[in-house]
Amino acid sequence: MASGAVPRPVRSRNPLDHGVPTGREEAWRFTPLRRLRGLLAGPDADGKVSVTVSAPAGVAVEQLDVADPRIGRVLTPADRVAAFAMARAGGATAVTIPAEAALAEPVIVHLHGESPRTAAGAAAGVAYGHLSIEVGPFASATVVLDHTGSATYAGNVEVYVGHGASLTFVSLQDWDAGAVHVGAHAYSIGRDAKLCSFTVTLGGDLVRLNPTVEYRGPGGDAELNGVFFTDAGQHQEHRLLVTHTPRSCRSRVTYKGALRGDAAHSVWIGDVLIEADALDTDTYELNRNLVLTDGARADSVPNLEILTGEIVGAGHASATGRFDDEALFYLQSRGIPPAEARRLVVHGFFAEVIDRIQVVEVRDRIMATVAGRLGETPADDSAEALAGAGAGAGAGAGAGVGAGAGAGPAGA
């Protein structure tokens, strides 16, 4: 039943239990290790991280010692960087939404990181952080985690969703151009609980995120959505692992990326493991990449391992391609100039995911950033044009090169 063996990483809080990667390991073969700026060595923190939380009444915000039993309840590090982040963070910010609360406004967590610089302006230090989010039983909430600054940063995020609860979680990586961010995000979903996450990666020199999902009871539902815009020289890597252990759980993964410029490199790894007792599982994952210029490369590797035949459904799809000529023709036939038509295609390509973010300020900021990358001033594009562009972009990406392929000269 297995279509590929999903890796089972060693998990330990002790950094010494995790070997120093060489780049030949499956988990590290796409990552340019020399650009991690010492994070694998785990030096003491000499950078600065400030965390501010804006939350509705009734939400508890605490600073915890890493020895607190709530820290590590969801996340046990699976690699050396995550273990150093837990050991060196010096504490954790904990956000707790009480049971049965129904928050009308989002919780906003703003994390700003700065690392010291040499006289020449190069990054010369690192920073660490740890965030814990707990949603009580039958509560509903939206939490936005906003990363900014120029830090070389290793951070862990653990999210505990109580039984019957519902959480929308938005993680926005809007770093300065020279930042480095290596993060582990762990989600634990209770019985009949629902998680809808959005991972949006825009800035930074190198960003590598490892989201993992586990279920604590039947009826759990996880939707993992992602958007990334990889510009010239950037490396953006998203490595997901969804483990289905209880029965009757559901997962949906949808990640969409656009790449532009020389040496722009995106990596998407989607691992789904269905254990032998996970009867009636329903899972599907999708990654689509739109390559805007020569010199950019998108690597995409979906992986599904099924240890029981009694499931509702399981599948995956991955595609990488360039602009779809039919979508461009559709827009130009309505009098839209070619350059504007291309911009609309990108907007429509992303809108399928971004429009589902209910926090208007965050949604508008993401679209404005994408518009800025494309060299335009955000405008009120017509709904009809955007709808047509979105349909065309989806078709174009789906007709592109398959999993694990690059596009353009770098993909050869």
TrEMBL record:
Transmembrane segments: none annotated. InterPro entries: Fe-S_cluster_assembly_SufBD, SUF_FeS_clus_asmbl_SufBD_core, SUF_FeS_clus_asmbl_SufBD_sf, SUF_FeS_clus_asmbl_SufD. It comes from the Bacteria. Residues 1-23 are annotated as: Disordered. Residues 123-349 form the SUF system FeS cluster assembly SufBD core domain. GO terms for biological process: iron-sulfur cluster assembly. PANTHER family: PROTEIN ABCI7, CHLOROPLASTIC. Belongs to the iron-sulfur cluster assembly SufBD family. This is Fe-S cluster assembly protein SufD.
